Amino acid sequence: MSKIAGGIFTSHVPGIGGAIAKGLQQDPYWKPFFDGFEPVHQWLAAEKPDVAVVFYNDHGLNFFLDKMPTFAIGAAAEYRHEDEGWGIAFQRPFEGHQDLSWHIIEEVVASEFDPVTCQSMLVDHAVAVPFELCWPGKEAFPLKLIPIAVNTVQHPLPSPKRCYNLGQAVGRAIESWGGDEKVVVFGTGGLSHQLEGGRAGHINVDYDKFCLRNLAPDPEALLQHDTLDIVELAGSQGVEILNWIAARGALRGSVRELASNYHIPISNTAAATVLLENSDKVHA
pTM of the full predicted structure? Predict the structure, then answer.
């Protein structure tokens, strides 16, 4: 059986790509954020996962306001990154895992979700930035990708509970897969930030730390706020915490935090990185 080794939760601010391209990892503005990935690098080197299942939000690359699926799951043999002008421009493709993708899709539909199935799909900075942070300087990424896009843009948005339940369905699907792959789950985006309007630059440290404090031991605490509450608390883009909530739902074992890092601001955003370990002891 396949195994979910753990989860990586991190901001995907596109400006991080520009910092990587310019070699600013040791710059005082950026260093506290990049330093948070040292334990992640050590854990990945030890665990050597075969597949990354990434919960993220598309920024208009595949879906726009006229056609915005609530959930979309990639089932492609390959995914290519289309740079949006922020600095990370590379031609390396992300190799897909079609068989596991279809298994996840079938099991998620059996759990009464209705995802859009994407046999052709591009990925943007929400996937590319976390991969560059986790495997810096690699000529080829050492694992396969299954992207799962969550609508955090066009209202009505899915509820936190709906996202958490989706993650649980994905976790069950991975656990029931007959292969022997080791899987790492990603939740990307956030934390609190708003890029437009009268609240541009909004950061809510208290809400961010509430999320970080409860993510491992009590993820259902994050479900007490509905989507509009989160927009109010965390900003219109801070609602990307839905990606974290979905990814946390996939970690159905006995979860413990191995590392956590919080740094403000990065490009008007509260940036964070959390590493969770998922044991084989599965909760009912």
Answer: 0.94
